[in-house]
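Slack export, channel: ligand-projects

TW: morning all. Re-posting the request from yesterday since it got buried. We need the structure predicted with the small molecule present, not the apo form. The ligand is pyridoxal-5'-phosphate; the SMILES is in the block with the sequence. No rush, but it would help planning for next week.
GE: picking it up
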Amino acid sequence: MSRFRPEIESLEPYVPGEQPAAGNNVIKLNTNENSFPPSPRVRDALRVIDTDQLRRYPQPFADDFRAAASEVLGVDKTWILPGNGSDDLLTQLFRAVTGPKRGVTYPAPTYVLYQTLANIQGCAVTEVPYDDTYALPASQLADVGAALTIIANPNSPSGTAASPSELGMLASRVKGILAVDEAYVEFSTGSALDLVREHDHVIVLRTLSKSHGLAGLRLGFAIAQPSLLAGLAKVKDSYNVDAIAAHLGTVAIRDVDYTREVTERIVTARSQLTSTLEDLDFYVWPSQANFILVRPSRCSAEDLYKALKSRNLFVRYFDEPRLANTLRITVGTDEENHTLTETLKELHR
Ligand SMILES: *Cc1c(COP(=O)(O)O)cnc(C)c1O
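GE: finished. pasting the full token output, ligand included:
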């Protein structure tokens, strides 16, 4: 007899992007981290953390962070549920909503963790394929009638985004819960936040990992009406947000000006990188995130990925038929982007 449930026995473990040992010569453009450091106020706050704070359990709902996020976003704090990264909130969502007779649907290819979480739950997965333009297949998604419909918007790995009005149309047609994973929303032009006010079955997920340069801190949050958040709260770990993450996250989210400055610089660098790669004959999907999906025309993506890696340049290659011959490249600092494009001038000819 197996030691594990059948769902776990057959599970392909989720494989995160490579994390090469931090060295001077590695340029890491494979996991969509922010190329800028977090707000200087985070550094200052970290220096003066009182270790006595660590003796006690943290606030179960990270209330100080909730209050700060509530002010910044202009939604009531009872509409915000913090978590240990948005991955934690996704876990809660799948635990609370899906099961053997309660399936999930999402357009694919997208964030691979959705499939992993579905498999753990043992729920049916209906993947609706994106076409090559990554237009939202809204009618097909609605027709599935799943307990959970989930959209990464902007999507990863394509970087493309559906408009708020397309999502609005989907929200009015979906029967179960509609989750909009807005991990990259600060780099885009629209958000589904207004839909949360109109619909009690819509939930938006945010994270400080990308826009706030705090992937190592592990802090994300959900925004939904209190009736929906109550279901998630039932399945969450009691102390899922640690005291340091809650405190530094509060400082970070309040520094709105810094976040705006950094995200604007990344958006500018994204359009420069896009046009340089187009000049080098790559196809580049229009991105609203801090990364771009590209298709080389003169060699295979896999060969290019390996050649870049041997030069200590890490980008993301997905060994997956629907992403055949593409690479996902995080927008780096100007210097990193320059090194990348100079290297690609040599390799892609
Ligand atoms: C990075 C990412 C996340 C995970 O964010 P964390 O807050 O670091 O857990 C969630 N969804 C998508 C689409 C992402 O790309």
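GE: first-pass observations. The first strand starts at residue 27 and ends at 28. Residues 85-87, 111, 152, 156, 181, 183, 207, 209, 215, 220 surround pyridoxal-5'-phosphate (CB under 6 Å).
TW: perfect, thank you
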